[in-house]
Each structure stands twice: as C-alpha cells, then as structure tokens.
Specification:
Strand content of chain B: under 5%
Structural class of chain A: alpha+beta
Structural class of chain B: mainly alpha
Radius of gyration of chain B: 52 Å
Number of helices of chain A: 8
Strand content of chain A: 25-35%
Number of strands of chain B: 4
Helix content of chain A: 10-25%
Number of helices of chain B: 33
Strand order of the largest sheet of chain A: 1-28-27-26
Shape of chain B: elongated
Largest sheet of chain A: 4 strands, antiparallel
Strand order of the largest sheet of chain B: 3-1-4
Largest interface: A-B, 82 and 73 residues
Mean pLDDT of chain A: 89
Number of strands of chain A: 28
Mean pLDDT of chain B: 66
Oligomer: heterodimer
Chain lengths: 519, 873
C-alpha cells in the first residue's frame, strides 16, 4: 500500500514533471503502424523518466527557494521600507543595496550580464563604467565625452556596446574601443540577442538594424516607418524584438522579415516602455495614457489593464514587474492568474529622475539608474535563487568563460530561427493557402528548386570522394531530389483523369461489341 | 579374354582370377603383395582363397583352355555382372535352414536316381548335341519336384508347412512370432501413390517442418526488432588467462598427450629433475642399437617407397591401353574387396553414383556412339555374334547404370543378407557336389586348408612395413577375426560331415519341398538354362579339379536361391517402405491437428492473461486514485472560491489604495499641471488612434490580400453605336469579380487576426525560415499531430538528466569496430523480458556445442562402423 504522504509526494512530483514534459504526448492509439507505435511508446516512457528525474532534481537538489515579503495582519508589503528589510537580511544581502551618487554625468543607464555578476553603466554625458557586483570592484571607468544613450553587454563581460551620439561603439572590458558600428547610425536603444550573437539597434530615423557580432555582417536593416522611438525590448523566449511607437503601436520584428510580424495597438498615447516575461507569453506595456497593460502574446489578447503611470518597466526572473516613474519605483507581483498587484515601492530622493530600472539576475536586487547616479534596492523573491552553472555562472572562472564562449559560438542560432513560435521548427510546413497552383507556378517553383540544387557548393572532401565524377553524381542526385516532389505531384493527379475516361459510355449500337465486365 | 571370363565367375573364382592377373599385372614385391592380401583379407574370402591356393596352378592352366562358348562369342543372353543377389532382411531366417536341408539332401537323392536318369540325359544329348552335364541341373530339379508333389497331396503349401520342420532350429521362435504378427494383422499392400501426389505430400511435410523451424525464430526476431538498441559485443573471456592457470587445467586427451604426460609425470624423471641434472642426463641416454635399428627402419621404408615410386613411374609409361584397362579393373576389384571399410564404401558409392549420373546425362551406352549407330544402320541381324554381343553388353551396361538405386537402408540390409548368403555358400558349395564321396573329400580338404591357413596366419611377417607397431596391431586384429571365422567354418565342416555320414535319406523330402517350387512355369526353366549349360562346360573341363566346378556350382545354387527370394521380397519391401512414408506423413498431420501450437505459446497465453489481470487491477487502482484525486479537486474547488473572493476584495482595496499611494506618494511639487491642450489631446487621442489603426490595418490587409479590381470595359467595347442600349458588363466578368471578392473575404476571415481588432499579424511566408520546416511528413509517420508531438521534447544532454540522455540518443545498433556480427543463434525467449531494454548479443568466438556434436556424430559413426565390422564376419 502506498501511504498518503508517499502519494502526496508522487503527486507533487507529477506536477513538477509536467513542466518538463513540455506538453502531452500524442494519442498513439490512432496509429496503425505498430513499429512506430512501439518506438514512440518507448520514447514517451523515456521522456517520462527524464521529466521525473528532472522534477526530482528540482525538488531535492536545488539549494534554496525564493522568499517573499509576508505581511502579518493588516501589514502591507509595500509599506515596508528598504531600511527595515536591510536590517533583517544576512550580511551578504546586506551589502547589496547601495546608493552611488554621481551627480555630474547623469542620468545613468545600466545593464547586467546574464549571470548578474557584472554591471555596465553609462551616464548620459559620456561616463562609462563596469563594475564587478560580487565584490563591488570597479573594473574600468572611462569617459567618452559624448552622449551615451544606451549600454549593453555582448556575449560576456568582455565586451559591451554603447550607443553614443553618432554611432554605437563596442568596447572591451579594458575600455578599448573595438568597433564603431557606423551602419547603425545614431542608435537610441541597443539590444543583444545572446543565442544568435546579434546586436539589434533602433536609430533616430526609426531604422532597425541587426548585426551579427561574431561575423560582423549586418543581417538586416529595416525601416519601421512608425516614427522615432527608443522603446525596444527583446523577448527572451523567442528573440523577437518588440518596438514601442508613438502612435501607441507595438511592433514585433525578426531579422528575416521586412514587415513587422505583429502590429498591435496597445495604447492610446505613445508607448513608453515594453517588458517581456521570461516565459515568453507575457508582455507588459506602458504608455503615456496612464495605463499599464499586460498582454498574452500567444494570442495577442489583453490580459489586464491597470491605470498607473510608468516610464520604464522590467520583468524579473521570477516574474516581478518593476515600474519606474520619475523618482518612484514600484514593484508588482503576480497574485495568481497573471493579475499583478503592488508588492513593493521605493522612493528615490526627491528630484531624482529615473532613467532605467533593471533586475539583477540571480539576485533579489533591483538596479536603478537615475540622474544622480545609481541605486540598488532589495526586492525579496525577485531573482532566481538557484543558478545553473551551465547556463549562467556568477562565479565563472576565466577558463569556464572561454569555454562557454566557444560553446556559445558553436551553438549559435541562425537569424532565421527567430520566429514567434520557435517550437514550430522542424514541424511540417503549413499547406499552401492557394488550393491549386497553376501549372506555370509549379514549373517556376520546380525550376527554382532545381537551380538551388545546382548551385549548392560542396565541401572539399578527402581523396576518393572529391572526384569530379562523384561531385557531378552528387549534384545530379540533388537535382533529382529537388525535382521529385513535383513529379510525384503530377503522378498523383493522373488517376482522376483516368477515372473520367472510364465513365465514358459507348453509344448503344456499339455497346454489344464492348467486352463484358466480369461479374 | 580373361577379363570377361572372370566377370562371369562368382566370387570365389573372382579371387582366383585376380591371382591369375597378378601374373600379368605389375609385379609387386612379394612382401608388399602379402601385406596387401592381409589388409584386404575378407574373412569370407579367406577360406576360399585358401582353397584356391591349393589348386591355383590348375586354374591358371584351365583358364588357358576356355572354350569358345565361354568367351561370349556365342552368348545368347546378356551377361550378368553380379550373381550375388541381395536379399532383404526377412529372407534369411525363413530360407536359410531349408536351404541347408535341401542342399544336404541333394547329393544323396541324386545317387539314388542316378541309374534311372542316365538314359534321359543321353537322349537329350543326342537331340541337342550338348554334353549331358548341361541337363543335370534340370534333372535334379525335376526329381525334387516330383518328390515334393507327392508329399503335398494336392494341398496348397502354407507357410506353416514350411515352418514345421524348423521347430528345433534356434531362430524358430522369432520366426513364429513374426508369422503370428503377420497373420493377426493382415496388411493389404496398397498401390503406391502416384508420383505427383507423393511429391506433393513430401512438399507438404517439408513445408510444415520448415514452417515450424521458422516460427521457432519468430519471437527471437521480434524481440530483436523491438529492442531499442542492439549491442553486438565481442565475447570477452574473463576466465583465467595466466599460463600457469591454463597449464594446471590441462588434461591429456589424445594418445600422444597421454604418452607425453606419462613421460613427464614419470616419478623417476620428476625425481631426477627435482634433485639434480646429472641423473636427467643419464636417463636421457639412448641405446646405440636402438638408434641403428631406427635408422635401418627408416632406410628400409625409404627404399620401399623409392621402389614403389619407380615402379609406378614405369607403369605409368606403359602405353598399352589394354594393360591399363586390366590394371584398372584389378584396382576396382581390390576396392570392392575393401568395401568393408565404410569410408571406402562411401567413396565407391559416390563414384558409382557419379557414373550413374554421367550415364544418365550422356547416354553413352545407349547406342549413340558412331560405331553403334553404324552397326544399327546396317542392321543388327547381319552382324556377327561378337558385335551383337558387344552391343547387348553396352545396352546392359546402360541399364545397369541407369537403374534406380535402392535406398541406403536397403543396401545395408542387403549387405547383411549377402554376407549370410556367403556363409551359406560355404556350406552350399560342398553339398552341391554330385557324389557324396566328393562331398566328404571336399569337406576334409576344406578343413585341412582352414587349419593350414590358421597356422599361416599365426606367423606374422617380421620385416618390412608390417614390422611397424601399428601395422602389427592391425594385422593382429585382422588375424583374430580370421581365426574366429576359420574356427567357425571348421565347426560347420565338422557338422556337415557328420550329417553327411549319418545319412541323407531322412532329409530328402524336406529339401525336395523347397527346391520343388521352381519346377512350375516355363519361365524359370529358361532362366536356369544358361547356368546349367555353363555347369556342364565347367564340369567337362574341370573333371579333375573339383575346386573349379565347385565354385561354379555354388554360383548356380546361389542364383537359384537368391532369384526367387529377391523377386518375392523386393516388391513388398518397397511397398512397405512407401507405406511407411505415407504413414509417417499422416502421423505428422495428426500431430499437427492434435497440437495446435507449441507449449511456449500456451505459456505466453497464460502470462498474457495474468498480465491482463494485473493491468485490470492497476486500472482499478488507478481509477480509485483518480477518483480520489477528483474528490480532492472538488474539495479544493469548494475551498477556493472564498479566497478568490477575498482576493478580489483585497484587489479592489489595494488598487484603490495603490492609486491613493500614487497620489499621495507623488509630491505636488513634482507634478506640473499639463496644459489644457495637452489634456484635451490626451483625452481625445484614443479615438483618433484607433481609427488610424483601423485604416492602417486595412491598408495592410489590402497589401497582403489585394482587393480584386473592379471590372471595367474599355470605352467602345460591347456597343456598336451610342444608339444601341448599353448592356452593361458581361456576366462572366461580374461573376469573376464576385468570386474574387468572396474569396478575399474568406481569406480575411481565416486570418489569425480576423477577430483581433487591434492586432495585425503578418501572414507573409518567410522563405528563409521555411527551410527549418519539414516539407513532407518523415517516413514512418502518417499523422502530422503525432509527428509534431514526437519532436516536442529536446533529446540533447543539455535538457535531459544523464540517466536518460544516453538512452534517448543511443543508436539502434551499437558495435565496436572489429566485432564481426555472427548470424543469429537460436535461444529461448523469455516472455517476461522487457522489450524496451537494450539487448546485448554476444558474438561467441566459435559455436562450441556444434563442434562437439560433430565430434560425437563422428564418434557414433566410428562406433557403428566398428560394430558393423564385428557383425560382418
């Protein structure tokens, strides 16, 4: 007999495992192919094992759980001030909140590395600095004496890109200028797609640029045509870039499409900021119309609309939403059913103008860039408590960093893999919308396919396989392969015609000469 | 001349003929010849050979004088190669004793009727011009028959009548039993099935068996197919591998190894080895004489070999065809003598079979040669006797070669019979003499000769190849066998002598009974004629040498005995066989009917039912659990609403408060009152924006899915004059336009953003991204849904724990380089096995059990051979 506790544990594990199963398996009962069925059943079993193991590991091996502020009685969490929090936390957390007063070169933009270890900050008037947040070491600090509009880390802390007055520049951690990206123009906002090694920027003339930082190739350059904007955010789930425009529109872009994938009317006034949830299906927008809206970007429907004013938004790893408005910071938290409620609030010193709010990954810390320098506050339960050193390791050694960089380069995704539904990769191509393509179209398609097959350049192979004869043979094979689906289509069509022929009836006078069908 | 002659002679004379040949053929040194004789010594022949030794010279001379009739020039009938008819097993018991009796009685009866019949042969002689001896046989038979008829009293002879006199004989009981069996269970011999039907049945059986064989493999193959991974591992022997461990396990098996072990473990040597080396040296000393002897022996062997080689070279050089033919025949004969050896017999059988096949292929002896065809063209009647006989000989050869062979079992039976016959022959030959004096004389002579042979045999050759130890042993064995045989023969002689002396009168009728049968029917007479004639010839020429006539007579008698027996037995035996075959077939079919499936399947069924039950049980449990869960859920649901309500309440509160907070938190100093224009703009901005967006969306839709152009006629078209009434657009144009419009609407409805007012989702196909999608459904899949579900899980090591990452990505076949994949080997499949487990298939280095089987089989064969050898003499 299974005891109640065991049952409970099993149920909990099942719930956890469901996350790792990534949806249910197909209904295999409908399959008629026994072999395939057997294979798939076996596969499903393995998936189940894998998910269960992952769930178990998650349950028993992850060191810590996130905690939240828990009010007692009539207490409200947003009434709790930073001072009272700081008094209660442990020493390591005690050091995290700070205020850095840099009055001259303000307002500051800031950015953390994905591991949360390093922070780069850029003052509007040209002050750039990189800080190791673990030991609060200033790695490099320099002045570019130019307007700095945005800063962003590239693949690791070694490089960062800065959107300056005329062009974006790439600096290394020593502050050496590595590149000047003139094609981007006067970029207002920068984003880096770390899986694709793409640096995206939107410039003054509302042009969206994608540049591959590993090869240096400009992958795409599109005119948004919707006016100047500095609202740009990348969706971490599918690397689609969202742009907020002045007409209240939000557009989503990918590097292989000149037109926005989605255009939504989100606000009645200009959009001031966008933030994407890590899970990829939640978007928060804020506009000048005193609204904060939450969108489900799977079906592009509005989830919630709140009346509040915010100039900047950011989602934390655990899904908290930070809103910055002038000198106030509010943090909202999901109270279930994606309904966000206020969780914390923080007041800057009067007169400080916020420029950026940014959650620090793997830490319960919110970094705030403002006109008088930097601030950092504690937001309990904001960050992911357990880091995965294979994904992002705050305590990375030099060797690990190098290795990871190489791995990342090897695993680099091509720009065309960016799409709204990345799970669709590998699935069957949707059928053509047109019912029957004309003969000419088919012919054209076939020709293009053949041309593509002919133009394939082969790798240089070893001795025997590099013979011209082999190459031509391979090419011929490729052409044949390209041709085949079209030819098969033709053969499929034929039987219909034949049927028609059979139906033709002989005139009555001749019928007696026709061969009788066997009964 | 001699080749043909000897061919006609029965076995005994054959040997004599061979002796004669020796003089013509290559002259082997006497030592070698002797050895050969010893090697080939057939116990049956031994005695006859010994006999021959006595009057070998005479035979030689006699042979020189063979009459014309013997040389085939005037032969009327096909020559028969083989006089030894092979009898089936059943035959021996019934006939042997009676034969004895008959033969025992024959001489005596002859002596009685001698005077009576003396006139008749004379008359015959006058009429036919043939010597009187030619009719002797017939007379004998006739006389016997009359006697027999008198005894019968007009009744039919039953088997019981034949059996009665045998009551005292040792094998009688067995015979009775057999007879009883036959009587109680009368079997009607059915007509053998037609060939087609028989073959069909055979095929059926073969199919059944092969199917059985194949189905045996099914679960094994199924298991291998279902296994997600097959590992082909090399058989790694993890046993002891040190030299010491191997040496300690060594056990001497072969003769040589045993000898070596004996030497190695000799306590003396071991002792010496342990103590000191000097003693070892002493032990190692070799006697000079031994060495010399060894050298001598080697030299002798070498010289023998050399001589033999030289001789064979010389013989090879001889170009005479006849010589080689004779040589070949001789060799064949020698081979036939060696037939006792199963290996040789097999070889011979193979050769014979090959010849037969060749004959059937080429039809060489069916008058197809140029010579034969020319003769046939000219007419066979004009040809002289020699040619005709040659042609008939050829045809006979063909018939012999193309005749259907008996099965192997029959052959073995026949062999046994033939040996028995030979045994009988030994006694027959004595009894077939005319006079009883002769008989006693002959018996005595035989006795003497056997004794002499025994003495001779005891003297082993002390030199040459036969001096070698293993040869000596072999010879000794042979000699033992020969001695035994000789002793038996001696006993037999004694017994027959005694019988002979006691008197023959008593046994006369019995013998008459047996041989009497042959009188009836003219056919038999005809058959016997040639033999008789030959008899007379032989007698004429061999008046002084009894041996020769003896043997010929024996042959005659043999024939008489064997002919009917074979005729009688061959038919039923074959019928029986066929019936047996059919029986077995029916049996097997019955078996099939009775046993619907092998036991394993039954077990599987049981297991399956168990499993089913188990599953059922589980289902019940599951259902229970799900129910419980459902209950829990419902409870949860019951509980939930309240907090939600609370939440909502609190939400409302909080929002208000939050707004309050905003209001309160934002200091008034910070807040700049927006201008009126701004406020208005903000207030009314929404409407404007929405309308703008709608416009924008429409534009976008038009771009992606353009509106069909309104049909327009070019001015002047569709009207002759302005007087003519305008008919408007042609209907097809209007229809087309309508259709296009409808299509567009449908397309717009189908769009994802059709129901989303404020969203435009681009439907443009990204051609670059298209290459990441599957053009067609990959092979084994037939359903898109299943395919897409199957690829939803990443299988890489980044996304899976180590325990499953390996199994998820394991190839279907795992094999190390260099491992040879052996053909599948049968093994029992455990139905309890998990089919999803990866399967390990160990590639054994060698199929050991098979080899053992072979060995054992060979051992059995050897055993059988040895038993045969034992039985035969």
């Amino acid at each position: 007999m299974i005891s109640a506790t065991q049952q409970k544990i099993a149920d909990e594990l099942d719930v956890r495992a469901r996350k790792y199963l990534r949806g249910d398996g197909a209904n295999l009962e409908t399959l008629r192919d026994k072999k395939l069925k057997g294979q798939l059943v076996n596969r499903e079993k393995l998936y189940g094992q894998s998910a269960k193991a992952a769930a178990k590991a998650e349950k028993w091996l992850l060191p810590s759980d996130e905690g939240y502020l828990e009010p007692e009685g009539l207490e409200k969490t947003w009434m709790i001030k930073q001072e009272s929090i700081v008094r209660e936390v442990d020493i390591s957390s005690f050091r995290k909140p700070f205020d850095m007063i840099l009055p001259d070169l303000g307002p500051y933009k800031l950015e953390y590395t994905p591991s949360g270890r390093y922070m780069v900050m850029g003052g509007r008037k040209g002050h750039l600095a990189m800080i190791d947040m673990l030991n609060m070491n200033l790695i490099k600090e320099f002045q570019v004496r130019e307007t700095v509009r945005d800063v962003v880390f590239l693949q690791n802390e070694q490089f960062f890109a800065v959107a300056q007055k005329k062009y974006p520049y790439i600096y290394n951690w020593r502050g050496t200028e590595i590149h000047c990206l003139k094609e981007h123009g006067a970029a207002l906002k920068l984003q880096f797609l770390d899986k694709h090694f793409l640096l995206a920027s939107v410039n003054k003339s509302a042009q969206l640029h994608y540049q591959d930082v590993s090869t240096g190739v400009i992958v795409a350059n599109y005119r948004t045509g919707l006016g100047r904007t500095d609202v740009m955010q990348v969706n971490p789930y599918n690397a689609v870039i969202g742009l907020g425009h002045s007409a209240g529109k939000v557009t989503m872009w990918k590097p292989t499409s000149a037109k926005p994938l989605v255009t939504m009317l989100c606000h009645f006034g200009p959009v001031t900021d966008i933030a994407f949830h890590k899970g990829g299906h939640l978007m928060a927008t804020t506009g000048m119309d005193h609204k904060i809206k939450l969108w489900d970007i799977r079906k592009f429907g509005l989830l919630h609309s709140y009346t509040a004013h915010a100039q900047m938004l950011d989602f934390s790893q655990k899904g908290m939403l930070a809103l910055g408005n002038k000198s106030h910071v509010h943090i909202w938290r999901d109270s279930g059913n994606q309904d966000y409620k206020q969780y914390m609030s923080h007041e800057m010193v009067k007169g400080y103008q916020l420029a950026k709010v940014c959650f620090r990954p793997y830490e319960d810390v919110l970094g705030i860039g403002h006109s008088m320098g930097l601030s950092s506050i504690i937001v309990p339960g904001a960050g992911e408590p357990n880091f995965d050193s294979w994904v992002a390791n705050p305590y990375e050694t030099k060797k690990q960093r190098r290795e990871k960089e190489v791995h990342a380069l090897i695993d680099k995704l091509q720009p065309e893999t960016i799409m709204l539904e990345p799970t669709k990769i590998g699935t069957l191509k949707p059928r053509r919308t047109k019912a029957n393509p004309t003969k000419k179209e088919i012919q054209e398609e076939m020709e293009s396919a053949i041309d593509a097959a002919k133009n394939i350049t082969f790798k240089k192979k070893t001795k025997g396989r590099n013979k011209p004869s082999k190459r031509t043979k391979k090419k011929e094979e490729g052409v044949f392969k390209a041709k085949r689906p079209f030819l098969e289509q033709k053969t499929e069509e034929r039987p219909f015609k034949r049927q028609k022929k059979e139906e033709v009836e002989l005139p009555k006078a001749l019928q007696r000469f026709s061969r009788k069908k066997a009964q | 001349m001699t080749g043909k002659n000897t061919k006609q002679k029965p076995k005994g004379t054959k040997k004599g003929g061979r002796d004669k040949k020796k003089r013509h053929g290559p002259r082997l040194p006497s030592a070698v010849r002797k050895e050969l004789e010893h090697l080939n010594a057939d116990p049956n022949l031994e005695q006859s050979e010994l006999e021959k030794d006595e009057f070998g010279e005479d035979v030689y001379e006699y042979d020189e004088e063979t009459p014309e009739e013997e040389t085939r020039k005037n032969r009327r009938y096909d020559s028969v190669d083989n006089y030894e008819y092979e009898l089936p097993k059943e035959f021996e018991d019934e006939d042997v004793p009676s034969e004895d009796e008959e033969l025992d009685s024959e001489p005596s009866e002859k002596s009685d009727d001698d005077q009576e019949n003396s006139r008749h042969p004379r008359m015959l002689e006058d009429i036919t011009g043939l010597p009187s001896m030619a009719f002797d046989g017939q007379q004998k038979k006739q006389i016997v028959v009359t006697d027999f008829q008198g005894d019968l009293n007009g009744k039919k002879i039953s088997i019981h009548d034949l059996l009665d006199p045998l009551q005292q004989e040792p094998g009688y009981k067995n015979l009775r039993k057999k007879l009883h069996k036959i009587e109680t269970k009368p079997m009607t011999v059915q007509v053998p099935l037609p060939k087609e039907e028989r073959e069909k049945l055979e095929r059926k059986v073969a199919y059944y068996h092969t199917r059985k064989d194949m189905t045996k493999w099914e679960p094994l193959v199924k298991r291998n197919r279902e296994a997600p991974t097959l590992h082909f591992d090399a058989d790694v022997n993890l046993g002891f591998s040190t030299v010491g461990s191997i040496a300690s396990e060594f056990e001497p098996r072969t003769e040589f190894e045993k000898k070596m072990a004996l030497l190695v473990h000799d306590p003396e040597i071991v002792d010496a080895y342990n103590k000191d080396g000097v003693r070892l040296l002493e032990l190692n000393k070799i006697n000079i004489e031994d060495v010399k002897e060894h050298q001598h022996r080697l030299a002798k062997m070498r010289s023998l070999l050399f001589n033999h080689e030289m001789k064979s070279k010389r013989i090879k050089k001889i170009k005479s065809k006849t010589y080689h033919r004779i040589l070949k025949k001789e060799r064949l004969k020698a081979a036939s003598a060696m037939e006792m050896d199963p290996e040789v017999a097999k070889e011979n059988a193979r050769k014979q079979e090959f010849k037969r096949a060749e004959e059937r292929m080429t039809l060489k002896h069916k008058n197809r040669s140029k010579w034969a065809q020319r003769i046939l063209k000219r007419g066979l009647d004009i040809q002289d006797e020699g040619t005709r006989s040659a042609i008939t000989e050829q045809l006979h050869q063909h018939a012999l070669l193309t005749r259907k062979m008996n099965s192997i079992e029959d052959n073995s039976d026949d062999d046994d019979n033939s040996t028995d016959d030979n045994d009988n022959d030994d006694s027959d030959e004595l009894l077939s003499e005319k006079g009883k004096k002769n008989v006693s004389k002959l018996l005595n002579k035989a006795k003497e000769s056997t004794l002499k042979a025994l003495e001779d045999a005891s003297e082993l050759p002390k030199s040459g190849v036969f001096a070698l130890p293993f040869m000596e042993r072999g010879l000794k064995k042979q000699q033992d066998a020969v001695e035994e045989e000789a002793r038996m023969a001696l006993d037999e002689y004694d017994a027959s002598l005694r019988q002979h002396e006691k008197g023959h009168d008593i046994k006369n009728p019995k013998s008459a009974k047996v041989s009497g049968r042959k009188v009836f029917g003219p056919l038999k007479d005809k058959l016997q004629k040639p033999h008789k004639r030959r008899n007379t010839f032989n007698d004429d020429h061999n008046s002084d040498s009894e041996g020769g006539s003896d043997t010929i007579d024996r042959a005659d008698v043999d024939e008489e005995v064997n002919n009917p027996a074979q005729n009688a037995n061959l038919g039923p035996a074959s019928d029986d066989d066929s019936e047996n075959v059919t029986h077995s077939i029916f049996k097997s079919f019955d078996d099939i009917v009775k046993e619907p499936g092998p036991k394993t399947t039954f077990e599987v069924a049981i297991f399956a039912s168990d499993c089913w039950k188990k599953i059922n049980g589980e289902n019940v449990v599951d259902a229970g659990s799900t129910k419980a869960a459902a209950i829990q859920n419902s409870q949860m649901l019951m509980h939930l609403p309240e907090p939600e309500d609370m939440d909502q309440d609190s939400d409302g509160d909080s929002e208000e408060k939050m707004v309050d907070g905003f209001l309160s938190s934002s200091p008034k100093r910070d807040y700049e009152l927006p201008s009126q224009a701004d406020l208005i703009h903000q207030a009314f901005a929404g409407d404007d924006v929405e309308a703008e967006f709608e416009k924008y969306k429409l534009e976008h839709l038009n771009e992606e899915c353009p509106e069909p152009e309104k049909p327009e006629l070019i001015p002047g078209w569709g009207q002759w004059t302005d007087i003519q009434q305008k008919r408007g657009m042609p209907s097809w144009m209007i229809n087309e336009h309508k259709n296009a419009k409808r299509k567009r609407e449908e397309a717009l409805k189908k769009r994802k953003d059709a129901s989303l007012k404020n969203v435009i989702i681009s439907e443009n196909v990204d051609k670059k991204a298209e290459k990441l999608l599957a053009k067609t459904l990959p092979f084994p899949y037939t359903s898109e849904e299943v395919y897409e579900q199957s690829i939803r899980m990443p299988i890489g090591p980044d996304f899976n724990p180590a325990i499953t990452a390996g199994t998820l990505n394991r190839p279907t076949v795992v094999k190390k380089p260099g491992v040879i994949i052996k053909p599948i080997q049968y093994e029992e499949v455990d139905p309890n096995d998990d089919p999803d487990q990866p399967r390990r298939i160990v590639q054994k280095p060698k199929a050991q059990p098979k080899a053992n089987k072979d060995n054992s089989a060979r051992g059995k064969l050897k055993k059988m051979a040895s038993t045969k050898k034992k039985i035969k003499p």
